[in-house]
Amino acid sequence: MQISITNTPTRYGWATIILHWLIALIFISQFALGFVMVRLTSQRTAFELIQLHKSFGFLLLGLIILRIAWRLGNATPALPRSVGALERRAAPLAHFALYGFQLALPLSGWALVSVSMLEIPSLPFNLFIMPNLPLAESDAAESFWAATHWYLAYAGMALVALHVAAALRHHFQLRDGVLTRMITPSSDPE
Length: 190
Known about the structure:
- With 190 residues, the protein is mostly helical.
- Helices cover 64% and strands 0% of the residues.
- It is built from 4 helices and no strands.
- Helix 2 crosses helix 3.
- The chain starts with 13 loop residues before the first helix and ends in a 16-residue tail after the last helix.
- It is a multi-pass membrane protein.
- Belongs to the cytochrome b561 family.
- Its cofactor is heme b.
- It is found in: Cell membrane.
- This is Cytochrome b.
C-alpha cells in the first residue's frame, strides 16, 4: 500500500491531512482563546493573550491560503457511492463555507486591529511588526469590525460543529470511510 503526499481519486494525501487537522486545531483554539481573553480582569494577561490570538490568526490566514491553493492543485477524492444526491450537492457548499469563514475571520481580526484607535502593533510570535491594512482608524470602524469578527467566530464555530457532526455520522452511522480517509492515507480504500 503506497502512502502519498498528494491526493488520489480515492484518498487524501499527507499534505491535505496535516493541513486539515492543523487548521482545525488552530481554528477551534482561536475561538477558545478569544472567548477567554476578552473576559480577563488582568490587562497584562489580556494583552499577552490578544497578541497570541493575533499571532495564531495570521498563521491561520497563511495556512488556509496554502490549504485552498493545495486543494485547487490536487484531486479531491470522490465521495463513496452510498452518499446521496443531496449530500453530494451540500458537501462542496459546506467546504466552501468553511474556507470562507477561515479566511474571513483572520481578515476581520486584522481589519479590527488596523482601525483601532489604540494603535497597538501586531507582533506575530514577537518576530516582526505586521503592517496594518490600509483602513481609516475610527471608533465606528472598530465597533463594526469587532462585531463582524464576533459574529463570524460564532457562525464559524457553528459550521465547524455541523462539519464534525457530519463526519461522525459518516463514521458511526453510515460506516462509509469518509472520516477514516481524512485520518490516514494508508487506510484501506472504500
